[in-house]
Each structure stands twice: as C-alpha cells, then as structure tokens.
Write a structure and sequence with these properties.
By secondary structure, this protein is of the alpha/beta class. Helices cover 39% and strands 14% of the residues. Strands 5, 6, 7, 8, 9 and 10 form a six-stranded mixed sheet that branches. It has a four-stranded parallel sheet with strand order 2-1-3-4, with helices on both faces. Helix 5 packs antiparallel against helix 6 and helix 6 runs parallel beside helix 13. The protein starts with 16 loop residues before the first helix and ends with a helix. The relative contact order is 0.16.
C-alpha cells in the first residue's frame, strides 16, 4: 500500500496568511540550555523551528521542508522516509526531531546508538498531531514557553475555522487524486487527504478501502465525486489542468461536468503543521464555492 505522499519540489509560494501572520516568538522563553545542533525531518517541524525563532540551531532538514523560503537553503538529508545514518551523522547533530513516518527505523536506531537524541512525534492526522509537533520542537530547542504561546494562537485559529466549517449546510463529496509520479491513485480512509477532506466539511467519496489505490474508471463512477482535489505538484506532473481533464475516467464523475477541481500546494494541503487551520479554511471555502 503506498504511503502518504510528501512533496519534494522547491516551493514557489510564500507562507499563507494563517501561519505567516504568527509572530516569531523567540523573545519568549529562550532557554538557558546551550544551543543544540538540530536536524528536522518533516516540513511541519521545520516550520515550527522557524516560528519559534530557533533557526540558528537548524543544521539540516529533509526534502519535504519547503517553508519558509530559508528552509530551502538548509543542508538536506534526503527524503524523510529514505534516510541514511551517514547523511544524518555527517551534520553532527545533537538532536533529530521527526515524526513516526520517518525512517527506516534501523537508520534512526543507528543515529541513537551514536549518542544523538531522536524525538519522534506520533503522526495520526489529527489536530493533536500538530500540537505534539509544536511541543516537541519547543522541548528540543529549549523554547517551551514560546511553544506554549504559539500553540495558544494556533488553537484559537483552529477553533475559529472549525466553527466556520460547522456552519456549512452542505458536505460535498470530494476525492483526492495523488499524481506526483507513476499512475494516479485515489485516497481512501486513514490518509492525510481523508482527514483534510473531513476537517474541511466535505465527505470523502472513497470509503471502501484504506490508503491509496489506482484510479480506475470503475472507482470514479462508483465514487461519484462532486469535486476533485489535487496538489499543484500533481497537476504539474500530469501536464497541467487541461491534460488532467482529458483523462477518460474523470468524464464519469459529476465533478467533470462543472470542471470542479481544487488545487493546493502539497505541503500546505497535507503537511499537518502550523498552517493547517489556513489549509482547512481555504479547502472549505473553495469546495463550498465550486459545488454551489
């Protein structure tokens, strides 16, 4: 079963309003502990490092760390699921912070054996996952008070967007298509895309299976989505929106008739980081508008 996709392309957009408006809270809670050399595995964790003003500790990131723009200039240790002990240890980190999606596990065990602190946050596609990421980065960087202040702001944003979603009268049927490379697949239950669809007040049109499976004409016809979701990277990989709509299986969907497609940058859509409230609000607004 394919694992949850993570973007690996350079970013072309600036931080969206939700997280960009957050102040850098480095003035709060700068710890007395000596600065650590930190490697962040996962774009969301890297974003939190910058939001806490701890970027001077950052000696490396993985290829999903695309925000802010400064993160693109950090030394890269490879894709978070395909790490090597040599690559990580070459940066001489004091700590590595990632999620339970990072690996392989044997590599992280080797890093631990070398005396490096490894902190892994449980990834379960919930708001608590975001909270755990903020807390973990606060602890590793010695900026616990700043992390608490940041979390309070994020919790307020999350409550606001959830209130807006709860007031919607319709729950359109949505389907996420993964097309970053190889044959396109659709997202079933237990995926980040499934969680985002539900958070945004829509219904995942695919509930018959968990994870990702190939996009077929039969699946499209039975799912009958009113709106299709994809990432900007996925649309680019397919040759643009015009080429996307030329796929014959899409003609079997209600979404095809009105060309109902919502496209968002992959790390913003699926990153489950401090921009999650903004991502949910944008997805909710756009799916409601395009299916009205």
């Amino acid at each position: 079963m394919p694992r949850e996709p993570m973007p690996m392309w350079p970013a072309r957009r600036t931080w969206l309003q939700g997280a960009a408006a957050l102040p850098l809270l480095s003035a709060l809670g700068t710890a007395a502990a000596a600065p650590a050399r930190i490697v962040a595995l996962g774009g969301a964790l890297t974003e939190v490092v910058y939001l806490l003003g701890a970027e001077t500790m950052l000696v490396g990131t993985d290829t999903t760390s695309l925000y802010p723009d400064a993160a693109l200039k950090t030394p890269k240790v490879g894709y978070m699921r395909q790490l090597s002990a040599e690559g990580l240890l070459s940066l001489k980190p004091d700590a590595v912070v990632g999620t339970t999606e990072a690996g392989p596990p044997v590599v992280l065990d080797q890093v631990r054996s070398a005396g490096v602190r490894v902190e892994l946050v449980k990834a379960d596609h919930t708001w608590d996952e975001v909270r755990r990421k903020v807390s973990a980065v606060g602890q590793v960087t010695g900026r616990e008070r700043a992390a608490q202040a940041l979390q309070a702001q994020l919790d307020a944003q999350w409550a606001s967007v959830q209130q807006a979603v709860a007031g919607a009268a319709r729950r359109p049927r949505a389907l996420f298509i993964l097309s970053h490379g190889g044959s396109p697949m659709v997202a079933g239950t237990g995926t980040a895309a499934d969680a985002l669809i539900r958070f945004a007040g829509a219904t995942n049109a695919i509930t018959q299976f968990a994870g990702y499976r190939p996009l077929t004409a039969e699946a499209m016809a039975s799912a009958a989505p009113e709106v299709l979701l994809n990432s900007t990277q996925g649309i680019e990989a397919l040759g643009g929106e015009a080429a996307f709509w030329q796929r014959p299986e899409l003609a079997l969907t209600p979404a095809f008739r009105r060309k109902a497609l919502v496209v968002m940058e992959a790390s913003h859509l699926l990153g489950f980081g401090p921009r999650l409230p903004a991502a949910v609000r944008e997805l909710h607004t756009r799916t409601q508008a395009i299916t009205a």
